[in-house]
Amino acid sequence: MRLEPEAPGLWRRNESPHFEHLAIGASTLSVARAACAFLNSGGGRVLVETGSQAVTTFAQALEEELRKELHPPALWSVSPGEQEGRGYCMVDVPTGRDRPYSVQGTIYVRRGATTVAASPEEVRRLVEGGFRETERWERRLIPGAGVNRLSESLIRAVRDATTLSGKLSLGVTPEDALTALGMFREGTITNAAEVLFGRSPSIQFPQVRVRATVYASDKGGDFVDHRQFEGPAFVMLEELTAMLRRHLPVAASFKAGGLQRLDQPAYPEAALREGLVNAFVHRDYADFSGGISVDVYPARLVIWNSGSLPAGLKIGDLTREHPSMPRNPDIAQVFFLRGFMERIGRGTQKIISACKEAATPAPQWKADETGVTLTFRTKVNQVEPARLNLREQKILGELEPGESIRQPEYCERLTVSERQGRRDLGDLVAGGWLERVGDGPSTEFRRTQKEWNPAKPGQTRPA
Q1: What is the pLDDT of residue 189?
Q2: According to a count of CB atoms within 10 Å of the terminal CB, is the N or C end of the chain lower?
Q3: pLDDT at 273
Protein backbone atom coordinates (compact mmCIF):
# COMPACT_ATOMS: atom_id res chain seq x y z
CA MET A 1 0.00 0.00 0.00
CA ARG A 2 1.19 3.50 -0.79
CA LEU A 3 1.20 6.14 1.94
CA GLU A 4 -1.19 8.97 1.11
CA PRO A 5 -0.52 12.62 2.07
CA GLU A 6 -3.32 14.61 3.64
CA ALA A 7 -3.92 18.33 3.95
CA PRO A 8 -2.29 20.15 6.88
CA GLY A 9 -4.39 20.37 10.03
CA LEU A 10 -5.55 16.78 9.83
CA TRP A 11 -5.31 16.27 13.60
CA ARG A 12 -7.17 19.48 14.39
CA ARG A 13 -10.32 18.63 12.45
CA ASN A 14 -13.53 18.64 14.42
CA GLU A 15 -15.83 15.65 14.32
CA SER A 16 -19.00 16.18 12.31
CA PRO A 17 -21.87 14.20 10.76
CA HIS A 18 -19.41 13.17 8.01
CA PHE A 19 -16.12 12.85 9.91
CA GLU A 20 -15.04 10.75 12.90
CA HIS A 21 -11.62 10.73 14.56
CA LEU A 22 -10.70 7.54 16.44
CA ALA A 23 -7.66 7.84 18.70
CA ILE A 24 -4.83 5.37 19.28
CA GLY A 25 -6.15 2.11 20.69
CA ALA A 26 -9.50 2.17 18.90
CA SER A 27 -10.53 -1.31 17.85
CA THR A 28 -11.06 -2.29 14.24
CA LEU A 29 -14.61 -3.21 15.25
CA SER A 30 -15.27 0.40 16.29
CA VAL A 31 -14.03 1.50 12.85
CA ALA A 32 -16.45 -0.94 11.24
CA ARG A 33 -19.32 0.54 13.26
CA ALA A 34 -18.41 4.08 12.21
CA ALA A 35 -18.13 3.00 8.55
CA CYS A 36 -21.52 1.30 8.84
CA ALA A 37 -23.04 4.51 10.21
CA PHE A 38 -21.63 6.55 7.30
CA LEU A 39 -22.96 4.04 4.76
CA ASN A 40 -26.41 4.50 6.28
CA SER A 41 -26.13 8.28 6.79
CA GLY A 42 -24.82 10.02 3.67
CA GLY A 43 -21.16 8.97 3.64
CA GLY A 44 -18.09 10.24 5.46
CA ARG A 45 -14.52 9.57 6.55
CA VAL A 46 -13.04 7.80 9.55
CA LEU A 47 -9.57 8.90 10.70
CA VAL A 48 -7.90 6.16 12.77
CA GLU A 49 -4.60 6.82 14.57
CA THR A 50 -2.33 3.76 14.45
CA GLY A 51 0.11 4.61 17.22
CA SER A 52 3.20 2.39 17.23
CA GLN A 53 1.71 -0.10 14.78
CA ALA A 54 3.01 -0.09 11.19
CA VAL A 55 0.40 1.79 9.16
CA THR A 56 0.38 -0.66 6.25
CA THR A 57 -0.05 -3.64 8.57
CA PHE A 58 -2.84 -1.87 10.42
CA ALA A 59 -4.52 -0.95 7.12
CA GLN A 60 -4.52 -4.58 5.95
CA ALA A 61 -6.03 -5.75 9.24
CA LEU A 62 -8.63 -3.00 9.01
CA GLU A 63 -9.61 -3.98 5.48
CA GLU A 64 -10.08 -7.59 6.59
CA GLU A 65 -12.26 -6.46 9.49
CA LEU A 66 -14.44 -4.27 7.29
CA ARG A 67 -14.92 -7.03 4.74
CA LYS A 68 -15.87 -9.45 7.51
CA GLU A 69 -18.16 -7.23 9.57
CA LEU A 70 -19.98 -4.94 7.09
CA HIS A 71 -23.18 -6.43 5.66
CA PRO A 72 -24.17 -6.33 2.89
CA PRO A 73 -20.80 -5.86 1.11
CA ALA A 74 -20.17 -2.18 0.44
CA LEU A 75 -17.94 0.26 -1.40
CA TRP A 76 -15.15 1.85 0.70
CA SER A 77 -11.37 2.33 0.69
CA VAL A 78 -8.61 2.39 3.32
CA SER A 79 -5.59 4.66 2.79
CA PRO A 80 -2.58 4.50 5.16
CA GLY A 81 -0.59 7.70 5.73
CA GLU A 82 1.79 9.62 7.95
CA GLN A 83 1.76 13.26 8.97
CA GLU A 84 3.71 15.18 11.60
CA GLY A 85 5.39 11.92 12.61
CA ARG A 86 2.09 10.21 13.37
CA GLY A 87 0.67 7.22 11.51
CA TYR A 88 -2.98 6.93 10.54
CA CYS A 89 -5.47 5.21 8.27
CA MET A 90 -8.21 7.14 6.49
CA VAL A 91 -11.34 5.19 5.65
CA ASP A 92 -13.35 6.82 2.85
CA VAL A 93 -16.99 5.71 2.87
CA PRO A 94 -19.52 6.88 0.26
CA THR A 95 -23.26 6.88 0.71
CA GLY A 96 -24.43 3.26 0.71
CA ARG A 97 -26.91 2.30 -1.99
CA ASP A 98 -27.99 -1.04 -0.44
CA ARG A 99 -29.18 0.24 2.93
CA PRO A 100 -29.54 -0.73 5.67
CA TYR A 101 -26.01 -1.85 6.54
CA SER A 102 -25.17 -3.62 9.78
CA VAL A 103 -22.27 -4.83 11.92
CA GLN A 104 -22.80 -8.01 13.94
CA GLY A 105 -26.54 -7.72 13.43
CA THR A 106 -26.82 -4.08 14.59
CA ILE A 107 -27.64 -1.19 12.25
CA TYR A 108 -25.65 1.97 12.99
CA VAL A 109 -26.32 5.58 11.94
CA ARG A 110 -24.88 9.02 12.59
CA ARG A 111 -26.67 11.39 14.94
CA GLY A 112 -24.79 14.62 14.70
CA ALA A 113 -21.12 13.75 15.26
CA THR A 114 -21.85 10.44 17.03
CA THR A 115 -22.20 6.84 15.85
CA VAL A 116 -25.19 5.13 17.48
CA ALA A 117 -27.42 2.10 17.02
CA ALA A 118 -30.43 2.99 14.86
CA SER A 119 -33.84 3.41 16.43
CA PRO A 120 -36.83 1.39 15.08
CA GLU A 121 -38.02 4.46 13.14
CA GLU A 122 -34.57 5.01 11.62
CA VAL A 123 -34.42 1.33 10.63
CA ARG A 124 -37.83 1.61 8.93
CA ARG A 125 -36.71 4.65 6.89
CA LEU A 126 -33.48 2.90 5.87
CA VAL A 127 -35.33 -0.23 4.75
CA GLU A 128 -37.79 1.79 2.67
CA GLY A 129 -35.00 3.82 1.08
CA GLY A 130 -32.88 0.73 0.45
CA PHE A 131 -35.73 -1.03 -1.33
CA ARG A 132 -36.04 1.83 -3.80
CA GLU A 133 -32.27 1.86 -4.41
CA THR A 134 -32.19 -1.81 -5.44
CA GLU A 135 -34.13 -0.87 -8.57
CA ARG A 136 -31.35 1.36 -9.93
CA TRP A 137 -30.34 0.85 -13.58
CA GLU A 138 -27.04 -0.96 -13.00
CA ARG A 139 -28.77 -3.63 -10.88
CA ARG A 140 -31.47 -4.52 -13.40
CA LEU A 141 -31.29 -7.97 -14.99
CA ILE A 142 -31.03 -8.45 -18.75
CA PRO A 143 -33.71 -11.06 -19.61
CA GLY A 144 -32.18 -14.23 -21.01
CA ALA A 145 -28.59 -12.95 -20.77
CA GLY A 146 -26.04 -15.34 -19.32
CA VAL A 147 -22.34 -15.21 -18.54
CA ASN A 148 -21.52 -16.56 -22.03
CA ARG A 149 -22.03 -13.09 -23.55
CA LEU A 150 -19.28 -11.61 -21.35
CA SER A 151 -15.50 -11.55 -21.77
CA GLU A 152 -14.05 -14.11 -19.38
CA SER A 153 -10.58 -12.56 -19.68
CA LEU A 154 -11.85 -9.20 -18.39
CA ILE A 155 -13.61 -10.87 -15.46
CA ARG A 156 -10.43 -12.83 -14.72
CA ALA A 157 -8.36 -9.61 -14.79
CA VAL A 158 -10.55 -8.10 -12.07
CA ARG A 159 -10.44 -11.31 -10.04
CA ASP A 160 -6.65 -11.52 -10.30
CA ALA A 161 -6.24 -7.84 -9.36
CA THR A 162 -8.36 -8.29 -6.22
CA THR A 163 -6.46 -11.44 -5.27
CA LEU A 164 -3.13 -9.65 -5.67
CA SER A 165 -4.21 -6.63 -3.63
CA GLY A 166 -6.07 -8.68 -1.02
CA LYS A 167 -9.09 -6.37 -1.32
CA LEU A 168 -11.69 -9.08 -1.91
CA SER A 169 -12.10 -12.75 -2.74
CA LEU A 170 -14.04 -13.30 -5.95
CA GLY A 171 -14.00 -17.09 -6.05
CA VAL A 172 -12.84 -19.26 -8.96
CA THR A 173 -15.35 -19.17 -11.81
CA PRO A 174 -16.76 -16.15 -13.68
CA GLU A 175 -20.12 -16.92 -12.06
CA ASP A 176 -18.48 -16.80 -8.61
CA ALA A 177 -16.85 -13.44 -9.33
CA LEU A 178 -19.99 -11.86 -10.75
CA THR A 179 -22.11 -13.14 -7.86
CA ALA A 180 -19.68 -11.66 -5.34
CA LEU A 181 -19.88 -8.35 -7.22
CA GLY A 182 -23.70 -8.39 -7.21
CA MET A 183 -23.85 -8.70 -11.02
CA PHE A 184 -25.24 -12.23 -11.43
CA ARG A 185 -28.35 -13.71 -9.91
CA GLU A 186 -31.05 -16.15 -10.97
CA GLY A 187 -28.74 -17.27 -13.79
CA THR A 188 -28.85 -13.79 -15.33
CA ILE A 189 -26.35 -10.92 -15.60
CA THR A 190 -27.07 -7.31 -14.67
CA ASN A 191 -26.75 -4.18 -16.79
CA ALA A 192 -23.53 -3.34 -14.92
CA ALA A 193 -21.96 -6.66 -15.93
CA GLU A 194 -22.77 -5.95 -19.57
CA VAL A 195 -21.26 -2.46 -19.40
CA LEU A 196 -18.05 -3.68 -17.77
CA PHE A 197 -17.49 -7.11 -19.33
CA GLY A 198 -19.81 -7.44 -22.33
CA ARG A 199 -18.21 -8.34 -25.64
CA SER A 200 -20.44 -5.89 -27.50
CA PRO A 201 -22.33 -3.82 -24.91
CA SER A 202 -23.26 -1.09 -27.41
CA ILE A 203 -25.61 -3.53 -29.18
CA GLN A 204 -27.71 -3.76 -26.01
CA PHE A 205 -26.98 -0.19 -24.86
CA PRO A 206 -25.96 2.21 -27.68
CA GLN A 207 -25.52 4.99 -25.13
CA VAL A 208 -22.35 3.42 -23.68
CA ARG A 209 -20.29 4.60 -26.68
CA VAL A 210 -17.65 7.27 -26.11
CA ARG A 211 -16.81 10.01 -28.61
CA ALA A 212 -13.50 11.89 -28.81
CA THR A 213 -12.58 14.75 -31.14
CA VAL A 214 -9.30 16.62 -31.53
CA TYR A 215 -9.77 20.09 -33.05
CA ALA A 216 -7.23 22.13 -35.00
CA SER A 217 -8.18 25.39 -33.29
CA ASP A 218 -9.80 26.58 -30.07
CA LYS A 219 -12.86 27.66 -32.07
CA GLY A 220 -13.61 24.10 -33.13
CA GLY A 221 -14.47 23.58 -36.79
CA ASP A 222 -11.86 21.46 -38.59
CA PHE A 223 -10.78 18.44 -36.60
CA VAL A 224 -7.48 16.63 -36.47
CA ASP A 225 -8.92 13.32 -35.34
CA HIS A 226 -12.34 11.95 -34.48
CA ARG A 227 -13.16 8.55 -33.05
CA GLN A 228 -16.11 6.73 -31.56
CA PHE A 229 -15.20 3.98 -29.09
CA GLU A 230 -17.24 0.86 -28.45
CA GLY A 231 -16.74 -2.11 -26.17
CA PRO A 232 -16.37 -2.84 -22.45
CA ALA A 233 -15.76 0.22 -20.26
CA PHE A 234 -12.15 -0.74 -19.40
CA VAL A 235 -11.23 -1.25 -23.04
CA MET A 236 -12.77 2.07 -24.07
CA LEU A 237 -10.95 3.88 -21.26
CA GLU A 238 -7.57 2.47 -22.30
CA GLU A 239 -8.13 3.14 -26.01
CA LEU A 240 -9.31 6.68 -25.28
CA THR A 241 -6.29 7.35 -23.08
CA ALA A 242 -3.95 6.09 -25.81
CA MET A 243 -5.56 8.38 -28.37
CA LEU A 244 -5.24 11.41 -26.12
CA ARG A 245 -1.57 10.70 -25.46
CA ARG A 246 -0.92 10.89 -29.20
CA HIS A 247 -2.53 14.30 -29.55
CA LEU A 248 -2.02 16.19 -26.32
CA PRO A 249 0.27 19.21 -26.57
CA VAL A 250 3.52 19.54 -24.66
CA ALA A 251 4.18 22.31 -22.14
CA ALA A 252 7.77 23.58 -22.34
CA SER A 253 9.56 25.31 -19.47
CA PHE A 254 13.12 26.00 -18.31
CA LYS A 255 14.82 25.40 -14.99
CA ALA A 256 15.43 28.58 -13.03
CA GLY A 257 18.82 30.02 -13.89
CA GLY A 258 19.51 27.40 -16.55
CA LEU A 259 19.11 26.69 -20.22
CA GLN A 260 17.84 23.13 -19.93
CA ARG A 261 14.38 22.84 -21.42
CA LEU A 262 11.79 20.66 -19.68
CA ASP A 263 8.96 19.13 -21.70
CA GLN A 264 5.92 17.66 -19.97
CA PRO A 265 2.30 16.94 -20.96
CA ALA A 266 0.17 20.07 -20.92
CA TYR A 267 -2.26 18.31 -18.56
CA PRO A 268 -1.11 16.23 -15.56
CA GLU A 269 -1.74 12.61 -16.46
CA ALA A 270 -3.04 11.73 -12.99
CA ALA A 271 -5.67 14.48 -13.16
CA LEU A 272 -6.71 13.62 -16.71
CA ARG A 273 -7.05 9.92 -15.96
CA GLU A 274 -9.06 10.63 -12.81
CA GLY A 275 -11.36 12.91 -14.80
CA LEU A 276 -11.95 10.18 -17.39
CA VAL A 277 -12.58 7.52 -14.73
CA ASN A 278 -15.06 9.82 -12.98
CA ALA A 279 -16.95 10.23 -16.25
CA PHE A 280 -17.22 6.45 -16.71
CA VAL A 281 -18.22 5.83 -13.10
CA HIS A 282 -20.67 8.69 -12.51
CA ARG A 283 -22.42 9.04 -15.86
CA ASP A 284 -26.13 8.28 -16.24
CA TYR A 285 -26.17 4.96 -18.08
CA ALA A 286 -29.98 4.90 -18.13
CA ASP A 287 -30.08 7.96 -20.41
CA PHE A 288 -30.33 6.56 -23.94
CA SER A 289 -29.46 9.97 -25.41
CA GLY A 290 -26.48 10.39 -23.09
CA GLY A 291 -22.89 9.25 -23.15
CA ILE A 292 -19.34 10.56 -22.71
CA SER A 293 -17.50 12.96 -24.99
CA VAL A 294 -13.96 14.32 -24.91
CA ASP A 295 -13.07 17.41 -26.94
CA VAL A 296 -9.42 18.42 -27.27
CA TYR A 297 -8.49 21.94 -28.36
CA PRO A 298 -5.00 23.48 -28.55
CA ALA A 299 -5.43 25.21 -25.18
CA ARG A 300 -8.08 23.18 -23.34
CA LEU A 301 -9.54 19.71 -22.90
CA VAL A 302 -13.22 19.16 -22.10
CA ILE A 303 -14.77 15.97 -20.65
CA TRP A 304 -18.57 15.72 -20.61
CA ASN A 305 -20.77 12.96 -19.26
CA SER A 306 -24.52 12.63 -19.12
CA GLY A 307 -26.19 12.83 -15.75
CA SER A 308 -26.30 15.31 -12.91
CA LEU A 309 -24.76 16.00 -9.54
CA PRO A 310 -26.28 14.02 -6.65
CA ALA A 311 -29.13 15.76 -4.84
CA GLY A 312 -27.83 18.31 -2.36
CA LEU A 313 -24.38 18.57 -3.99
CA LYS A 314 -23.33 21.82 -5.70
CA ILE A 315 -20.46 22.59 -8.07
CA GLY A 316 -18.63 24.45 -5.32
CA ASP A 317 -18.66 21.30 -3.19
CA LEU A 318 -16.49 19.49 -5.76
CA THR A 319 -13.53 21.76 -5.04
CA ARG A 320 -13.43 20.82 -1.34
CA GLU A 321 -13.94 17.73 0.74
CA HIS A 322 -17.50 16.45 0.40
CA PRO A 323 -19.48 13.26 1.03
CA SER A 324 -19.30 10.79 -1.83
CA MET A 325 -22.57 9.71 -3.45
CA PRO A 326 -21.74 7.45 -6.41
CA ARG A 327 -24.47 7.08 -9.01
CA ASN A 328 -23.24 3.60 -9.99
CA PRO A 329 -21.60 1.99 -6.95
CA ASP A 330 -21.40 -1.50 -8.53
CA ILE A 331 -19.52 -0.11 -11.53
CA ALA A 332 -17.42 2.13 -9.26
CA GLN A 333 -16.40 -0.85 -7.11
CA VAL A 334 -15.08 -2.78 -10.11
CA PHE A 335 -13.07 0.24 -11.30
CA PHE A 336 -11.64 0.45 -7.77
CA LEU A 337 -10.86 -3.25 -7.55
CA ARG A 338 -9.25 -3.19 -11.00
CA GLY A 339 -6.92 -0.39 -9.85
CA PHE A 340 -8.31 2.50 -11.91
CA MET A 341 -9.38 4.31 -8.72
CA GLU A 342 -7.03 4.61 -5.74
CA ARG A 343 -9.49 6.04 -3.22
CA ILE A 344 -13.25 6.15 -3.04
CA GLY A 345 -14.87 9.56 -3.24
CA ARG A 346 -11.69 11.64 -3.47
CA GLY A 347 -11.54 11.98 -7.27
CA THR A 348 -12.19 15.71 -7.54
CA GLN A 349 -9.66 16.50 -4.80
CA LYS A 350 -7.06 14.37 -6.61
CA ILE A 351 -7.70 16.26 -9.86
CA ILE A 352 -7.28 19.63 -8.14
CA SER A 353 -4.15 18.51 -6.30
CA ALA A 354 -2.51 17.13 -9.46
CA CYS A 355 -3.17 20.35 -11.39
CA LYS A 356 -1.81 22.43 -8.54
CA GLU A 357 1.34 20.30 -8.31
CA ALA A 358 1.90 20.64 -12.07
CA ALA A 359 1.30 24.43 -11.87
CA THR A 360 -1.49 24.26 -14.46
CA PRO A 361 -4.74 26.27 -14.19
CA ALA A 362 -7.33 24.94 -11.76
CA PRO A 363 -9.87 22.58 -13.37
CA GLN A 364 -13.42 23.83 -13.76
CA TRP A 365 -16.69 21.91 -13.42
CA LYS A 366 -20.09 22.86 -14.77
CA ALA A 367 -23.43 21.09 -14.38
CA ASP A 368 -26.66 21.72 -16.26
CA GLU A 369 -29.68 19.78 -17.49
CA THR A 370 -27.59 17.94 -20.11
CA GLY A 371 -24.79 16.65 -17.90
CA VAL A 372 -21.55 17.44 -16.06
CA THR A 373 -18.55 19.05 -17.78
CA LEU A 374 -14.94 19.12 -16.59
CA THR A 375 -12.52 21.51 -18.34
CA PHE A 376 -8.72 21.42 -18.14
CA ARG A 377 -6.67 24.35 -19.46
CA THR A 378 -3.02 24.55 -20.44
CA LYS A 379 -0.42 26.99 -19.20
CA VAL A 380 -0.68 30.20 -21.23
CA ASN A 381 1.99 30.57 -23.95
CA GLN A 382 3.71 27.32 -22.98
CA VAL A 383 2.02 24.91 -25.35
CA GLU A 384 3.63 23.35 -28.38
CA PRO A 385 1.94 21.04 -30.90
CA ALA A 386 2.56 17.34 -30.66
CA ARG A 387 6.00 16.33 -31.93
CA LEU A 388 6.09 15.10 -35.50
CA ASN A 389 6.65 11.53 -36.60
CA LEU A 390 9.03 10.51 -39.39
CA ARG A 391 6.30 10.51 -42.06
CA GLU A 392 5.24 14.05 -41.18
CA GLN A 393 8.86 15.20 -41.21
CA LYS A 394 9.39 13.60 -44.62
CA ILE A 395 6.46 15.36 -46.26
CA LEU A 396 7.54 18.72 -44.79
CA GLY A 397 10.95 18.20 -46.34
CA GLU A 398 9.39 17.51 -49.74
CA LEU A 399 6.79 20.29 -49.90
CA GLU A 400 7.71 23.86 -50.76
CA PRO A 401 5.78 26.79 -49.23
CA GLY A 402 2.57 27.20 -51.20
CA GLU A 403 2.64 23.66 -52.55
CA SER A 404 -0.39 21.46 -51.78
CA ILE A 405 -1.11 17.79 -51.29
CA ARG A 406 -4.38 15.87 -51.00
CA GLN A 407 -5.00 13.10 -48.51
CA PRO A 408 -5.11 10.22 -51.05
CA GLU A 409 -1.77 11.35 -52.46
CA TYR A 410 -0.27 11.57 -48.97
CA CYS A 411 -1.47 8.03 -48.13
CA GLU A 412 0.00 6.68 -51.37
CA ARG A 413 3.36 8.45 -51.06
CA LEU A 414 3.82 7.51 -47.39
CA THR A 415 2.14 4.07 -47.62
CA VAL A 416 -0.34 4.58 -44.79
CA SER A 417 -4.03 3.92 -44.24
CA GLU A 418 -6.68 6.56 -44.84
CA ARG A 419 -7.21 6.96 -41.08
CA GLN A 420 -3.49 7.37 -40.34
CA GLY A 421 -3.11 9.80 -43.21
CA ARG A 422 -5.93 11.92 -41.83
CA ARG A 423 -4.25 11.97 -38.41
CA ASP A 424 -0.85 12.89 -39.81
CA LEU A 425 -2.23 15.75 -41.88
CA GLY A 426 -4.25 16.90 -38.88
CA ASP A 427 -1.04 17.06 -36.80
CA LEU A 428 0.58 19.26 -39.45
CA VAL A 429 -2.47 21.53 -39.60
CA ALA A 430 -2.53 21.81 -35.79
CA GLY A 431 1.17 22.70 -35.82
CA GLY A 432 0.70 25.41 -38.42
CA TRP A 433 2.90 23.77 -41.10
CA LEU A 434 -0.10 23.02 -43.35
CA GLU A 435 -3.40 24.81 -43.89
CA ARG A 436 -6.61 23.17 -45.02
CA VAL A 437 -8.01 24.48 -48.31
CA GLY A 438 -11.47 23.51 -49.55
CA ASP A 439 -13.90 20.95 -48.21
CA GLY A 440 -14.95 17.36 -48.80
CA PRO A 441 -13.11 15.08 -51.25
CA SER A 442 -11.46 18.06 -52.95
CA THR A 443 -9.76 19.24 -49.73
CA GLU A 444 -6.09 20.13 -50.16
CA PHE A 445 -3.40 20.75 -47.57
CA ARG A 446 -1.15 23.66 -48.46
CA ARG A 447 2.37 24.15 -47.08
CA THR A 448 2.62 27.37 -45.08
CA GLN A 449 5.62 29.61 -44.54
CA LYS A 450 6.25 28.20 -41.06
CA GLU A 451 9.74 26.78 -40.87
CA TRP A 452 10.54 23.20 -39.92
CA ASN A 453 13.89 22.58 -38.27
CA PRO A 454 14.54 18.82 -37.98
CA ALA A 455 17.65 19.49 -35.93
CA LYS A 456 15.73 21.25 -33.12
CA PRO A 457 15.51 19.00 -30.02
CA GLY A 458 12.10 17.70 -29.02
CA GLN A 459 10.45 18.09 -32.45
CA THR A 460 10.43 14.45 -33.48
CA ARG A 461 8.72 11.29 -32.39
CA PRO A 462 8.64 7.72 -33.76
CA ALA A 463 6.40 7.01 -36.74
Answers
A1: 97
A2: C
A3: 94
